[in-house]
Fold each of these.
Amino acid sequence: MNFKVHINNIHGSQMAAKIIGSFTVDGNEFRFTAIAFGRIGGQNIGAKISKNTEKKLEQLGHDPEDIILLLQRNLLQGDLTLPEGLRRESFVDD
């Protein structure tokens, strides 16, 4: 499976941030939102997709829960692209 994540916008700080972006699965693009929070207990991300996106993923033969887990893992590991002008340092706590 070809899976890529792109961040469109991030609001917040290193403590908590709302992420708006998209991901592609085998050339099909879908939107998502996520909340990222960290510090106590480490970094954590909760991503959400719409019911419509869930249905489309199922039609493509993918389990939406597996896709959400993959999306969250990519966000945590920094396996993503950012819009021009947004730097990882603005939301990643080193």
Amino acid sequence: MHVGMDFGTTNSAVAVAGDEGPAAVVQFSTAAGPTSSLRSVLAFDKHHRGATGGIAPLVGHHAIDAYLQADGECRFLQSFKSYLTSRVFTSTSILGTSYTLEDLIALIVKTLRDHAATTTNAEVKRVVAGRPVRFVAESGQPEDDFATGRLCDAFAKAGVDEVVFEYEPVAAAYYYEKRLTCDETVLVADFGGGTSDFCLIRLGPGRALLDRPQDAIIGTNGVGLAGDAFDRRIVQYGLSRHFGKDATFESNHKILPVPAWIYSKLERWHHIGFLNLPSTLRLLRDLERKVDRPDQLGQLLALIEYNLGYHLYRSVEQAKIDLSRAEATDFTFCHDPVEIRRRITRVEFEGWIEPELAAIESCVDGLLDATGIQAKAVDRVFLTGGSSLVPAVRAIFARRFGAAKLSTGGEFISVASGLAHRAREVFS
């Protein structure tokens, strides 16, 4: 059997393929029933011990359950794929044990590997894994070699002897090609949690991507933003003021705002945990006594101290989903002592994410310009990944290529399925 592994910022998936036929996506058991994707999260609960007596990390849905039910110290980690380009984040101490970033990623990869092995009843030592077209650091600089090197180390720690990387939109193209009965020139757009990636490619029975992948690919491009950036804008513009953003206090006869860096952490869901430091909490308690809106700063303190960041961002994510289906949603976040009720309209949301939409559109235009392919020469646009469901994202491609050319599907499984088909080719 051949294994394709999609380790994602928010969700991960793994698929297996035999020597012929379609790929099968591996299922994960949850309290709500089987699911085809694994949340890319970890929990370290001091009460959950392994056979040797040490703290046993929990992965995916088990991590979420432990975090929600924890009555003691429980560390919850998410979006750590976003740190692959960071030369600062080398390791972290969790309940007295040091973990490198590669160690944390390996825990997710090992879970994917173990589930694939159970499904195939065979040891998994070789995989094709997905990667974005560009790994982009927060500075905007490309860090491809550094990030892929860390991924290789993480896969090795997870027991994978050989890993071959494939661009995620190319993998999605393998998935999409299975439905074709005629040849097409296709723009594949894959929207993950951290990156938006694009591939212009020739597909179909007469072109056989599996037979000639290098001849089929016309060009690729990517930008380092996607679903997480949309969530960040909802927090930044829709919710931050509830937590005291723009509140002021007097110091040395001057009126000063609450430091902006606090809210830059709040606006990135994988950074909220960094606010739960003794020095930061002391600063916030001191400011609470001085600011003109103390109740709101108290809400921020409660969010941090009660470890409600995950709950907040699940509500934000649900609001984004609701706005993909309706013109407005009533955002409600009630976790005592924090309470937020706010109506958010799709028009507001689309205004908040306008910079991201412009960057996505510019990236697509750059791909067309670099390849010399005109929009009218593109037969089909295949949109996949969670943020492909956002109407404003779809509108970019409808304007450029025409709504009739848009196709969607496999939002959370297309990349893993395509990677399994690629693994069949690589390892046969």
Amino acid sequence: MLEVVQAFDRVPITAINTDDAAELERKLVAAERVFRDRDGWLKPHQRIAVLRRLATLMEDRRDHLALQIAREGGKPLPDAIVETTRAIDGVHNAADELRNFAGREIPMGLSVASEHRWAFSTREPIGIVAAISAFNHPLNLIVHQVAPAIAVGCPVVVKPAATTPLSCLEFVALVHEAGLPEPWCQSFVPEGNDLAERLATDGRVAFLSFIGSARVGWSLRAKLAPGTRAALEHGGAAPAIVDRSADLATAIEPIVKGGYYHAGQVCVSTQRIFVHEDIANEFAEKLIARVETLRTADPVLNETEVGPLILPREADRVAAWVEEAVTGGATLATGGRRLSETTLQPAVLLNPTADAKISTHEIFGPVVAVYRYQNLDEAIARANALPTAFQASIFAQDIKVAMRAADRLDASAVMINDPTAFRTDWMPFAGRRESGYGTGGIPYTMRDLAQEKMILMRRG
């Protein structure tokens, strides 16, 4: 049995049954059976109908799903409502994408050898998908991994985070209620991490979708069966540059949102803020004043802006990193105080050393670090200095500065006057270098889960 507790106060919610090795084998056998039965594959219009019914069922349970996210994951209720809305739209997005999900004509007749031929391609599902998900968006991440598989026609076995399984289990139940036969979408809550690895590395799995730590993700990729494809989504210490031309009246709010959304437990949370020395003091004053007004409390309350970390040990780690930075010479301008077993007061650190953990590793907590710089290229070089690279921001009213930073920042997406954490569910979302492998986003995942087959006909 797995006990699921509220992230904020550790009060038990429920206990659920876990799956053993025999259950994993049963699920994989069922998935393989339906995939091998090509005559039994659902037609595109049937998959669209399932996804449309699923979105309607989710809409009917919107408030319940949002409250469940807040309880098990600790995300403040207003943000949990946004996550639920996004998840519903993501299901529609997968259905909509099927209208244009097609092959292409391959030109023939371009050489003598290719005369009198016609060739075109189709897209086929790649096979069984193993999806291993994370706790921080316990519904929307599942949608990003499962809805594309349903749309393309891949059987999927999805393993949620052990701390937040309820959103996943309910979503899978809704998928079945919407009319998808169970073998095409199955949840898997294992007794231990060894079984999760067994799922990912099984030779019957054609694609691994992994969202979680870089250490685990890269390790799993190295152990995949020959031929298994993968997408990995990790994180980084996202940088934001604030130029002296920035409008601080409008820049502070998105920076705060980027840094403290879900208590900083987002793979593209704003963490390292490089501010031009001409405005550094004014920026710090405004940032600190806004952070001190953030309402940190029980996430199920409508007025809460910052909730808990997912586990007590994570709060311990973040507190230790703050203490290490201060010991090394940083100024703790505000916050950092322990409010509960899992909750920390949002913190701002000024000028940590370059080798402090807050400067070099993803903190995944409600802490940002502010550094001064003298010229733009210096700030860009410091922003690019880590082995991780995901999304970045530049705040500037000077278009030349904004475009130079956008061109030079090592990131898969650069936001101009928007937070590093900005995302829509149809845009490409990808970590570079150690931050990930492959491209997320529902349309992009659907392409990964399909294989192109060329068909050639000789005429005459």
